[in-house]
Inverse folding.
């Protein structure tokens, strides 16, 4: 009989994501189409947004910056003790880590970077959103009334990061933070070409995909952050609205094989890729779930279960942007994105 | 061989409906939740509204009045010649008929009342809505951009009138206006208890239901007007929004057997019943379609194919309101309807 | 005042379509996935199929043949008198026309070819499907119970034919048969590149698209026949099932601008393209509806409102097949289609 | 600073449910409509069924018995160590507990009853379903191909048990098994009238509702077991199919406030109540999620967010059946349930 190591439950969830945007006003106009509400603006001009089912004060922070990209991925620990255990584990593994002061919406946090430099933090104390007035819901289990404007997303779902070595990231997430590998694409070399990991019933709160342009920059790159609808029909209404407003839909609605997600990818005016997750995909409750391998011969079905293939830009575009003549048309398309004035009603 | 009389195609569609409301501001707030836009207000204070797929300037007119009810059902003729043929036919059948001047959105019309007094008009010349600015759609076949506010209905669908004799109304609609009987409930006496008629592929642009309270008033009563979504998921979002805002959902989402409609019934703040039609039901292209009979033993399935039965109020409440102690609770409920302030964004 | 010519209502609907297939057994296996039931087989081996909402005995006839293609488009006239009027009109316009004897499911018909040779017939007398036993529905307005097998389509919707001159076909359909032009793509030359026409509230019962390969054959070619779901979610289940069974999904689920249809295109094993229409698109009740023009600059949105572009094969592949090296991969893909054994229960 | 006790993660999921049925053949015919497949029959005649996303060999066992009711709720532990910890905890709390031999689909299990006698077991070793032939999916993350027959449910979701004291059950589930209380109805007395608990992101794998008939029997009663669709449209197709086949739909499709589930309740021919869960409701990732209280004044919205109220039977009918004249009509209805012969293809 094999004695299995027990799973770690110290990271509870993806709680917030911070993005850089060179076009804050235009980015805000975009997220208002997703029904996301501005809850706070700090003195440096960063703006905090939330989807109506997000439990805490905010789930998305937009920071004015000269270029687009990922500013921070914020994980919430399961408990104060769990936080301490993870910090202890991280101390021996990461560089540049430090405790930072409480900031809007969360208590003190432990900041660190992944082995490839993606900026993370983990915390336990958090502030809950308290709806007032027209934001209040009569549903006792809903943090905020479903907005009447736009095609409102329900909550933050996951992040997807571009990697130089997927394996290195997977090992780090598993060993330092207790993530479970759920699905992965394997290369003929035996290395992973992409991976999806989670700490909950979701197939992933985080994914890593090998960056085709990995040799062309020193820092780290971001692929996308996803918000969740739960109903695929919303993707149709969103596709319609974004097309009317000249936003750049990169791909979808489409059905992935990996995670069985019906989804859509859009470039927000600041340049970051946003995924909108339409259905539920599948959920994992099996505690000994074996990671699902997709070999190179399965890759097509892994990426697209049925429907049109993903465009070339999907595999090359990330933020910060790296000049890439292979997807020149894509750049030309997104350069025209500007703030849309949406109807007042 | 039987020689069949050829069908009449002179009435093309239900083009507009005018309703009385004792609470205009509150009624307007309600229809804004349905994504209907105010396009005009006339000097008497009547307001004209449209859904985004309605082709003409408006489809719903709300007229301030001391009580709720139906002010006018407006039919568009297929051609000028068709209009003249119908007018000739009507002249020998109806009373109080007269030509009226062009008014907002339509040319001159021929006004008349049905044998039981419901106010109708028929016209041919019409003004099309021309979207400008943020209302304009990039879809060349869409009259107006889909609104970003509320849970927008697509177009006017049908009216349902309370009748003292359903048969008399069916005969009139068929003989004077060329409607085809599509479905009906038959009573053991052989008379019709309810009927659904159309001039198009829709199962009905008009329905008549025998009024349980027919002996308690002299004038005519109105049951409901329906607007169409096409996607049943919208009924879920609307149910959610109306519940948050304290509007009175009388019944649904539910599935009728008759017309196979997935729908919902709501009392707007002025007191009129509004139906929201979620799916497509079925469409009729067969030119010799035989009217579908539902006998008394089928009535339950005709009314509800699956799901909860309709409440008693559905069979007794109409506008203008007749005092009816059998549905006292229903009156108590709708008395509290008042204007809702919807979130600004 | 302009006196408008009155519309013609003599053709009521697309009633049946007959297709050739070189792989009858495999084609039948495919249509069983669509929930279509075999109702008859004639002595020549042709098989008659129906969808559960089709009113008549059948809507699709599959004829064994050495190659795929269109065998017949069958229109039902509105009345016996309407049929006679159309025959009179056709006599002066078409060649090779003749009355043919009643055959399975319909009375005597008038056969003719369009100016470009597509084989049509028009008839009035028809036989209705009468469900028995487990096929009977408790819904009095449903011709047959919704099947429990496959992802059942509801009814025949439209045909799309490849044309050498779209204008010539549009003129013929309008003048000889009373069709209304609903939408069209215009070329810089002023000619139509594609057109959608109807006799009912549908945007089209028939479409014509200019064949890129028009100079490479003498006869006529067929693009697709469409069956209707009404609910876009069915396209997801169908995409899933067809992918599991190795059928060739050429494109979709996708959203057209023209007709606003959410749909999917599949090549059935015999080689014919089948469209599955997911939602309702929009319906036309306006009797003076102006044809919607899509200029060359609008063509992209006309074809795809949002989502991935159509593959090259969509614009070149038709039946009978013309060798076309530009879409060699497509041919390689569909050559592997063979009968699928579907699970017994 | 408060030091919080850390959460327990020892129970991973609801893995299987066993039900008694006095009409095995008829029950099997019902579950075949849900696309559930028979995978095994043991020598005592019990039949094992699975939904296509269930990971293990089976999720539902039907046991021939003289009356309907719950035979066993099977929980899977997170690890062998977790199992041992729970067993140790249970030993001091429960009666009649014992280790039982491995049986079809799972390793050895620890059997016990709740304080009110509901039969539970917990185990760790399990056998996975291995699809073969036409059951195999090309989706590497799907245990079995989606069936082409019926309206297939995806997986087992939760159980709902009738209780004499809800509080006593909540305390037991929390203290002995580590469940978190997610939502509850509170009575004016301060006691809980109903409760929903989970060990995962689901709002509940188990619920307890106070039995109106609690003084009328000595043993325990069962309210329902739920299977999950994920797409509400499936409820429409299921409602249609069950109505055609004369099955008893007790309530829905409806939208609960608690758990935000769109669902439907059906009595299977053996007499047990089955819930079909249509959408996703909401998911809980917040590790310090505060239980949601619904006071008596909120109870109506808790039970039904919008739509028709639940029938009286919902609050009184359970299995085993207790004679209850208040819902005599309900009994009369379900007595007529018998095996349906479903169409062969």
């Amino acid at each position: 009989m094999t004695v299995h190591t027990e799973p770690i439950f110290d990271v509870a969830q993806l709680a917030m994501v911070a993005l850089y945007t060179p076009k804050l006003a235009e980015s805000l106009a975009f997220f208002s189409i997703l029904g996301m509400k501005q809850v706070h603006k700090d003195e440096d001009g960063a703006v905090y947004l939330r989807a109506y089912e997000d439990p805490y004060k905010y789930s998305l922070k937009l920071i004015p910056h000269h270029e687009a990209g990922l500013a921070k991925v914020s994980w919430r620990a399961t408990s104060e003790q769990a936080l301490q255990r993870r910090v202890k584990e991280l101390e021996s593994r990461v560089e540049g880590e430090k405790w930072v002061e409480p900031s809007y919406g969360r208590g003190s946090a432990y900041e660190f970077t992944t082995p490839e430099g993606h900026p993370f933090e983990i915390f336990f104390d958090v502030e809950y959103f308290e709806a007032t007035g027209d934001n209040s819901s009569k549903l006792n289990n809903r943090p905020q009334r479903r907005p009447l404007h736009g095609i409102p997303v329900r909550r933050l779902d996951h992040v997807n990061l571009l990697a130089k070595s997927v394996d290195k990231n997977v090992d780090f997430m598993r060993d330092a933070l207790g993530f479970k590998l759920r699905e992965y694409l394997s290369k003929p070399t035996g290395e992973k070409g992409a991976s999806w990991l989670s700490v909950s019933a979701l197939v992933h709160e985080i994914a890593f995909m090998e960056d085709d342009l990995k040799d062309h920059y020193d820092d780290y790159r971001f692929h996308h952050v996803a918000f969740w609808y739960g109903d695929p029909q919303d993707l149709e209404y969103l596709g319609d609205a974004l097309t009317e407003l000249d936003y750049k839909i990169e791909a979808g609605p489409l059905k992935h094989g990996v995670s069985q997600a019906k989804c859509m990818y859009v470039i927000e005016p600041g340049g970051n890729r946003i995924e909108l997750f339409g259905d539920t995909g599948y959920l994992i409750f099996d505690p000994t779930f074996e990671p699902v391998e997709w070999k190179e011969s399965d890759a097509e079905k892994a990426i697209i279960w049925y429907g049109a293939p993903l465009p070339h830009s999907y595999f090359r575009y990330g933020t910060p942007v790296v000049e890439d003549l292979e997807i020149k048309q894509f750049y030309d398309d997104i350069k025209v994105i500007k703030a849309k004035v949406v109807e007042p009603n």
